[in-house]
Amino acid sequence: MERNKGEFIVRENEVSLRLDSLIFSHALASSRTRASTYIDSGYIFVNGKQESAHYKVRIGDIISYQIPTKKPLEIVKEDLPFSLIYEDEDLLIINKPRGLVVHPGNGHEEGTLVNALAYRYGDAFYQVDALRPGIVHRIDKDTTGLLAVAKSERAFISLSNQLKDHSMHREYLALVTGNFPGKEGRIDAPIGRKKDDPIRFAVTKDGKAARTDFVVEETFATHSLLRCRLYTGRTHQIRVHMDYIHHPIEGDPLYGTHNHSLFSKGQLLHAAKLYLKHPSDGRECEFEAPLPEDFSNVLSLLREKNS
Description:
By secondary structure, this protein is of the alpha+beta class. It is 20% helix and 28% strand. The strands form three sheets. Strands 4, 5, 6, 7, 8, 11, 12, 13 and 14 form a nine-stranded mixed beta sheet that branches. A three-stranded antiparallel beta sheet has the order 1-3-2.
């Protein structure tokens, strides 16, 4: 009988096995590679805690699991617009438009990038989670720009590992309020969910480590255009960090105050560059997406005011 969730206790003859080997031996995964993916995705726990794939189990360890069903949930296929920057047998690089949620969830069952991918490609993407086929990382609904999607299992594993070790990184362009005394800066401040507002995040003492470096690309009378590099990938990281240093992103509906003077359709934040190692051969790849028209129009307005 196929099991999707449950638990078992490590027996004496299983002591010192790697966790991924144990999961494979209990027929919860078709291979050690798949077992490792389940572990990294947070579907396997040891004594209620997440451990690495190479954790060596001990007698009496309680292994609990809740693995997504192999039968995929029904995803509505929708013809939604997005631009394709690159495609091969392993991955897609997408230029996501403003207003497009990446995957179903939190009240968004339709109208997401996953629905659009299902329309164009069917079930061509590697799937661990039925609602997030191929999705390795996300960008916010109203953030525009580059997103990598895994078509193969090796791509999913490779990109996931690159995100963890920070060898895959992204550069964002952000229009923020105010000016800076220097040309570059670093924000190294932990981020956690706000206790009194589950939608928002903030710099907190008990948050997860987060680092954002930035360079001032252009200065205007009331705003600055920054190029930001993420060294961690916390939810809303750039938005939270910019608000923390009192330079919120123009148009951001969640963070900062009085920052809708020029734009009211969402934060002017664009994932402009993406660097990664190709899953097939490890070669260095760099992708770039142009600014969306609405972002460019605001910059043109600011430049006119400066002249």
